[in-house]
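Priority: medium. Attachment 1 of 2:
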């Protein structure tokens, strides 16, 4: 079985994109098809990751070309867990409480918001773009 070439897949996807803008394909249908295809690729690609890393380790170089693509091996990163520190946990709890006060002040604006005798300033709010959740039935 031959693998689907990325260039061929990309060309087909661009055709679908153009068909949407030519009015021949519904934008929601095309978006759903792209999203579901992305989900399948992420799912199956994730299952292959360990084997792909093993295969890449056959090359001594950090970066190399293979077939029609380039590969760069990167070491995994780490993350600290601050929850084990009591002082950090206390400060974090205070921060969350302050954030709740600031949200309350925003909801009450343009009125002045006083909580426990303290005037709480109104902070800015950024609204992000809407999104769609697509799931296979």
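Attachment 2 of 2:
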């Amino acid at each position: 079985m031959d693998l689907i070439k990325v260039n061929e897949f990309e060309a087909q996807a661009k055709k679908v994109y153009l068909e949407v803008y030519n009015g021949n394909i519904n934008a929601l249908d095309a978006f759903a098809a792209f999203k579901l295809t992305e989900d399948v690729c992420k799912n199956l690609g994730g299952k292959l990751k360990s084997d792909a890393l093993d295969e890449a380790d056959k090359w001594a170089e950090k970066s190399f070309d293979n077939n029609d693509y380039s590969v760069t091996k990167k070491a995994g990163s780490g993350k600290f867990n601050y929850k084990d520190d009591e002082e950090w946990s206390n400060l974090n709890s205070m921060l969350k409480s302050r954030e709740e006060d600031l949200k309350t002040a925003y909801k009450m604006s343009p009125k002045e918001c006083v909580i426990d005798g303290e005037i709480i300033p109104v902070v800015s709010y950024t609204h992000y773009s809407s999104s769609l959740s697509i799931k296979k039935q």
